Amino acid sequence: MRTKKYRKGALLGLTAVVMAGQAAATETEMAEVLVTGEKLITPSMQASETVYTGSEITPKGIEMQGAKATTSVYGALDMLPGINVESPDSTGLTAEMSSVRVRGVRSSMGAMTVEGVPNYGGNPIGPRDYIYDMENMRGISIYKGAIPGDIGTGIGSRGGAIELRPDWPHEDFGLLFKQSLGSNNYTRSYVRLDACPAAEIGTSVSGSYSRSKADKWRGSGTLGPRNNANLALSQPLGDKADIKLWYNHNDHDQHLYRPLTWKETQNLSSNYNKDYNAKRTGNAVDDINYYDYNRGEYQNDDLLAVLTVRASDSLRFTAKPYHTREDAEIMQGVAPSPTVSSSPASSSSAGSNPPGVSSSGGTSPAGTVQKRLRDITHTAALSARP
Predict the structure, then answer these.
(1) Is residue 247 one of the residues assigned to a domain?
(2) What is the largest CA-CA distance in the chain?
(3) Of 134, 155, 340, 373, which has the fewest beta carbons less than 10 angstroms from its beta carbon?
(4) In a domain, 337, yes or no
């Protein structure tokens, strides 16, 4: 009995050896597969870090996403996993009308910076992603987890941190012109000039200008005109220091899209083209939804300097003074409170004025056209010593 067990075990072992040998004999080594191309997304880290903690969209990655990525930072980041961008329009010209989440957290709780200098405002609180031309950026980095210490987070970083890296003036002369056309009378013109007016001392400058405009795809009104101008200067200060100056101006006018209620979204076939009224009716209850009473005008000016002093190969001091100003006027119709009944005597929009312009947030029996004003200035400085 024991001999039979030994024979059976030896037979099984011999069978396994033979099968293993046959498998090894039939193995085929695959040829190496090499994929080449220009990267759209690369790992990103700050100069003071030793590991990559973020992701960066390259200029090619920005360009491939079309019109929305030329005037909207969030439009350029839409290709990254973990970022959800919902916008009523595909042109990138809808200021403060998008819903953006980074890993499920609203973008209003995230940081946006230019060279580490924070960009944020109030009413609504959060970054202003619509004030830059993306052609003037050499990359956009986003950190979804731990935030590097040398990024000014402004309002906080629960929704991650975005850093825009300016495309500083080039050492060689260059001229770039782009013209874009699209549906709904979309048009955008962009031009940039790089020059070295004092090459003997290393001075280089750049300047750009763009103008964008489109009709809304539903309802009456326009998005734009949007006018953007950017100036930059780079100047070495000997062998151990240099200074860079960067100025950005953005002037943007737009008519708003009318948001749908939850109930209306459940019947999109009937409400797909619903928007603000194209004409006034003379009834104030209806005229708060007149398209020209629902619009915004936004002007932003940003000036920053980056002064770098290199004391040694391992010691560097950086100072970043900056000044920003935001001036905006937004008009929007506010429906009457359900507890207040409307009265024909309250109709007042048959003339040239809105039904009643209020900055207090209250509503009349016929509703109110609310006007929100923003005049916000930030002046401060950041410093770092990597």
Answers:
(1) no
(2) 112
(3) 373
(4) no
Rg (CA), the chain: 29
| Omega before 365 within 30 of 0, i.e. cis | no
The domain in which residue 132 lies consists of: 41-166
Mode of pairing for the β-strands spanning 99-102 and 174-182 = unpaired
Tally the domains of the chain. Answer: 1
Say if CB 367 and CB 382 are below 8 A apart. no
- SS3 annotation, the chain: CHHHHHHHHHHHHHHHHHHHHHHHHHCCCCCCCCCCCCCCEEEECCCCCCCCCEEEECHHHHHCCCCHHHHCHHHHHCCCCCEEEECCCCCCCCCCCCEEEECCEEHHHCEEEECCEECCECCCCECCCCCCCHHHEEEEEEECCCCCCCCCCCCCCCCCEEEEEECCCCCCCEEEEEEEEECCCEEEEEEEEEEEEEHHHCEEEEEEEEEEEEECCCCCCEEEEEEEEEEEEEEECCCCEEEEEEEEEEEEEEECCCCCCHHHHCCHHHHCCCCCECCCCCCHHHHCCEHHHCEEEEEEEEEEEEEEEECCCCCEEEEEEEEEEEEEEEEEEECCCCCCCCCHHHCCCCCCCCCCEECCCCCCCCCEEEEEEEEEEEEEEEEECC
Q: Percent of the chain beyond pLDDT 90?
A: 49
Give the CATH number of the domain where residue 64 resides. Answer: 2.170.130.10
The one-letter amino acid at 257 = Y
> Does some domain include residue 382?
no
First to last CA, the chain: 79
* Structure-block tokens of residue 244: 């860079």
Q: Which two tokens stand for residue 111?
A: 């940081």
Residue 90 lies in a domain: yes
Q: Which two tokens stand for residue 322?
A: 């900056």
Quick one: average pLDDT of 67-95?
90
| Residue 83, pLDDT score | 86
Exposed, middle or buried, 191 (CB in 10 Å: 0-12/13-18/19+)? middle
| pTM confidence score | 0.81
- Of the candidates 308, 238, 246, 323, which has an alpha carbon nearest to the alpha carbon of residue 47? 308
Cis peptide before 124 (omega within 30 of 0): yes
